[in-house]
Specification:
With about 180 residues, the chain is an alpha+beta fold. It has a single domain, classed as 7,8-Dihydro-6-hydroxymethylpterin-pyrophosphokinase HPPK (Alpha-Beta Plaits, 2-Layer Sandwich). Helices cover about 25% and strands about 25% of the residues. Strand 6 and strand 7 form a beta hairpin. The longest helix is centred in the middle third of the chain and has 14 residues.
């Protein structure tokens, strides 16, 4: 005779939020032909799984920020609709950077130095994320005209969660030295 052993209680089905989120990715570089690199990066963003590029800002020549004794940057912002969790999207961006030759120092040194390509999640919907290695909205977005100007190209009345109006932030930091590039 078999003893009656209780069956394990089934775990409730976990429903993951898979609805698309509109994220904004900042692109920048100042090594080599940065406009060509950024165009290539935009094309690579079009291949990110479960995502689609919605719009791309104009490209801007911007003065170096943080470490100012280096070449000007070319910056842009891409709006991407994605069903990927923010951490997975970040990993996709880091893979694209590596494919373009970007090497990030493990200790964070050189974070404001010259680079062939820099991809950052600026906004991920209206979410605020504060995890090791993943901070959204980007912690310096409200201080960086080189990201605010192209972001406002895409959405003129966007808010930065926890900070307020991106337009107001741009007024506070100013946009001196930022020039729209004429595409060839």
């Amino acid at each position: 005779m078999m003893s009656s052993v209780p069956l394990p209680t089934p775990m409730p089905e976990v429903v993951l939020d898979r609805s698309p989120v509109l994220a904004f990715v900042g692109l920048g570089g100042n090594v080599g032909d940065s406009a060509v690199t950024l165009r290539g990066a935009v094309h690579r963003l079009m291949t990110v799984p479960r995502s689609r590029v919605v719009s791309v800002s104009r490209f801007y020549r911007t003065p170096a920020w943080g470490q100012e004794n280096q070449a000007d940057f070319v910056n842009a912002v891409v709006a991407i609709e994605t069903a990927l969790p923010a951490r997975v999207l970040l990993n996709e961006l880091l893979n694209i950077e590596r494919d373009f030759g970007r090497e990030r120092a493990a200790d964070g040194s050189g974070r404001w130095g010259p680079r062939v390509l820099d991809l950052d999640i600026l906004l991920y919907g209206e979410r605020v994320i504060d995890e090791p290695g993943l901070h959204v909205p980007h912690p310096y977005l409200h201080e960086r005209a080189f990201a605010l100007v192209p972001l406002l190209d895409l959405v003129s009345d966007i808010d930065i969660p926890g900070r307020g109006s991106a337009r107001r932030a741009l007024v506070q930091v100013g946009g001196a030295g930022i020039e729209s590039l004429v595409e060839r």
